[in-house]
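Before our next group meeting I need something from you. Please put the record directly below this note.
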Amino acid sequence: MHYHLIGICGTAMASLAGMLQARGHRVTGSDENVYPPMSTMLEQLGISVMQGYSAAHLDPAPDCVVVGNALSRGNPEIEATLNRRLLYRSQAETVKEEFIRGRRSLVAAGTHGKTTTTSIATWVAECGGLNPGFLVGGVVQNFESSFRVTESDYFIIEGDEYDTAYFDKGPKFMHYLPETAIVGNIEFDHADIYKDLDAVKTAFKRLMNLVPGEGRLVAGWDSAVVREVVAEMGERLHTRLETFGTSADAMWQARDIDYTSGALTRFRVFREGREWGAFEMPLIGDFNVRNCLGVVVAADAWGVERGAIGEALATFKSVKRRMQVRGEERGVIVIDDFAHHPTAVRETLQALRARYAGRRLVAVFEPRSATSRLAVFQREYVEAFRLADHVVLSTVFARERGSAYGQLLDTEALASEIAATGGPPAHCLDGADSIVGHLAPELRRGDVVAVMSNGGFGGIHEKLLDTLRR
């Protein structure tokens, strides 16, 4: 078939383009924003990308048009697709029909940690001999890729709760046919999609309702909202429930977590009170222990041997932009992390505090996502940043555009509140260049700088390292 992808340079769309090509299809695409790294990946794959949007890009007519979820009516190619009555699908629906249907699907979902959990699951399944296909919203460093197409019966995918397309406003994970679903945690996020926490809970109930009777719902029992959702499902939950976490009443428990063994985190796993295995991993933080534990439960359901699980966890290389060390100059370590929700900020700083004990921890944060730009979490951010020794906040990304979803976060007030309530010194500056200019002269050997944003943040990581180098 000939697939044409409108908005091909989005992370998920570019990965889908590579997957369709690997399956033997002809793939073309178009986008207004053609830039690395996705444009580079598509060029290396030999996939043709047309600049901008035009009805002429649909000549000759493709067999199927795939519409990216960032696009809306009025786009010339969408209008031509509708007027010419061409077959069109969303990215998630295409993944379902081309790569998931008929296979055993593991969907890793939750407000936080789903990219890492999906990545761990792919490596565990690989070490277990399952040869899984996968699609992840990040680069899995064990594979140096965000996707893979295989002919095995197993497929692993990140369950994104964000909406699917202009014609399908439900979450993407509703298309992924889970035999096993890991739901690690649930919190309010994506204020541009969900009105409130109840709306988020409803979406996850719908996901849980897809899991077949012979499948598994692997539920993170350390999350109070996950417990609420499972309880509210009641008899409508028609699958096997397995709970996991550090909580004493979880079916699967992580105990004796040890961060003192150099570069490795060690923990023991208990199932219904009996020791099931001992594991070690190069990741840090209680949240990553929970991510691994959820995968242990799912891998056991798929018959992966414990030895293979242990080998995989010990050799997992993490995901780019998840507490990734970008470099070290003059004794200063610069770390790149995707954290943007206050819970993720707190967990990231807590983990770095444990790994780099005794060193000064500097937190640099850009409010960029639709929710982090809003004042809804102002108080929670004050608490989250208390774990740092020094805080630098960027002004809200694209603040001149405002937001249709509520009042913007006041970063100057936030900096004052952090410092005034017994927290660390905090400053608010306008963008990457200002932050680098302020911060570089203040840094000293032994400092750890955690840069947190869900976007490019003006290339701040390399700018800071380059300034320190010079």
